[in-house]
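ping. complex inputs:
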Amino acid sequence: MINRRHFLTTVAVGTASAAALAACGTGSSTSAGETGTAEKPVTINYTWWGNDDRAERTRKAIALFESKNPDIKVNGNFTDFPSYWQKRATEAAGGGLPDVMQWDLSYLRDYGQRNQLLDLGTVKINTDAFEKSLLPSGQIKGKTYGIPTSTNAFAVYYDPAKLASLGVAEPTGNWTYKDFNAFLTEVGTKSGGALFGSTDYTGVWWMFNIWLRQNNIEAFTEDGKLGFSKDDLKKWWNTTAGLRGTPAIISEERVTQLKPKSPLGSNVTVSEVTWDNFMAGYLGDSGAKELKLVPVPSDDPDNLGLFLKPSMLMVASAKTKYKDAAARFIDFMVNDPEVGQIFKTSRGVPASKTQRDGTTFEGTDKLVVDYEKSIEKYLKDAPEPPIVGFGTLEASFNRIASELNYGKVDINGAADAWFKEAEDLIKQNA
Amino acid sequence: MTQSPTLSRRSASSAPAQLRKSKQRGADARAGYTFLLPWLLGFIALTVGPMISSLYLSFTNYNLFEPPKWIGLDNYTSLFQDERFLQSVGVTVSYVVFGTPLKLAAALAVAMLLNSKRRGQGFYRSAFYAPSLIGASVSIAIVWKAMFGDSGPVDQGLSFFGINLGGWVGNPAMTMPMFILLTVWQFGAPMVIFLAGLKQIPNDLYEAASMDGAGPVRKFFNITWPMLSPVIFFNLLMETIHAFQIFASAYIISNGDGGPAGSTLFYTLYLYLRGFSDFRMGYASAMAWLLVIVVGIITLIFFRTSKSWVHYSGDAK
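pong. complex structure:
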């Protein structure tokens, strides 16, 4: 029978042992020595975000690096973009960031300004072959925290085969937002809802930034405050107000279902507004033979608001024990022509001239390179590392735009919500 | 029950024996604490220490990289103006209120079925327990996500019956039912405890009731329920606390962002996002402490009200 004392003791013992079990299983390993030898190589950790396609290419690049540098082993690891930053935060809090990391401009200040990243000016990395105008985007207050691997620019992707089957004319890229919306609507109507035009492009944070540039509005002021008003944001979200809920734009439910794949990669939409280096990923995911690129729409034909951004940077942890090995790996990844041959344009167009000239671009890779050449006359300077918390602002922009598409909030409510979060965040980081 | 044997022995012992005994007891205690030490050290270093530091951090503005800045109660007061926080409370409460009773009901029902003497009971018990073994893992959340996705087995099965809900994962109205189903399906742990409790109920009570003409419903409410009430109480308490802590499955199924449209923004998930996506550890700590306090209060309420419905067999009642 169940007796009170006996029962409670049993519960207590059970809980205690569960807690003891939970307490097991932590530990860390350290290895000594700054540099390795071929017999006793050092191991550095390298982490990146991306899909299977990038993982395969990175694996090849690492194998090549190891064969050329027998004294260094590289231990690679990757995740998708959103959880990438949560992992880095956890590691930074515990002082255990990987030795070398692929990095995004949005998060350079968050970590660089807070002494988490190695000053790459103190190690040997050759940057002679880089455009002088590009390097400042990896620098904060004169210190170099990131080396761009490559550049990317914003573009509209479209699938010519699907357009042909629907009988929709291919876009020329010389278009206004009204033209673009008409194009999306035509796709949705002609396909009878089987294919959607694209995702709601007003939910893309960078596209909003480009639109601000097209209207000569600074996204952020010099002192790190918001440079645009709530009305600007409402105006932007109103651009596609008539398309939400129609086949011009894929519903947010479907987008959520398809994750982690993109709608374009899943052959559900015919176009997408995003970075031009996503080509390889989209082709790999969708199995489409060909995707083409045209410039983003603009209501001012002389100002497309476009710029070349470091598509990604290579950084090292400030706490790495293997500065030399880390620097050699970064140098290899950004400069080596064979690495260029492996990645082609999947990281963007190689930033280092050595690497770019050593790479042969054919087929779709040539499209990406040609696209960046074709927009050269519209390009503005590469942006500086954006404000602290830029990545968080982007995440909250994407989330609120998604709620807008779910119909959970209206445009006014969405703009209020985003401004409240943004102002709160900027105040926190001030 | 029986009288404590130590009482009678102690009254018979003399003074020197008493002394010897207390020395002996001191040595016993030392040995006891020595054996307890590994656990105690772990408890202090890994639980008490972090708890105290998180209490301190909850009064600060701390971004992981720079030293914390003291801001008093600001984190706690701003919580209640944070719409996302209030949303996360709503999501979590509805999960606890609907999920826990359903899970316990399922656990009790299956335990009663498995309590009878039938061939192959061992197999059935293992089979019903299996989902709980794998249930908390990441892999099952991924399987679940696929099952309830667009044209997944659930969607296809339902449309066979003419119900077209589409994928549950992307529909904000369907994610909560999905999470409740997931937790109900993992009834194994409380079921095993119920089963152990059911086995403790003497069969003669049921026999006597049968003789008096009691039917199965009457037997359940007049024998099973009161006799099992300590176990029900224990399960209710543990499952409620667990339900408040739901994290892993929500993280996986929503791709770590609490979507779609915030419908899976569980309390701990929001806490995690605040801490590790937005670098607001002070705020996250305040949330953690608020959760501890609320769960503590709920536990207290459970214990208070338990006097009226939980019967221990040693009690006079």
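Chain A has 16 helices and eleven strands.
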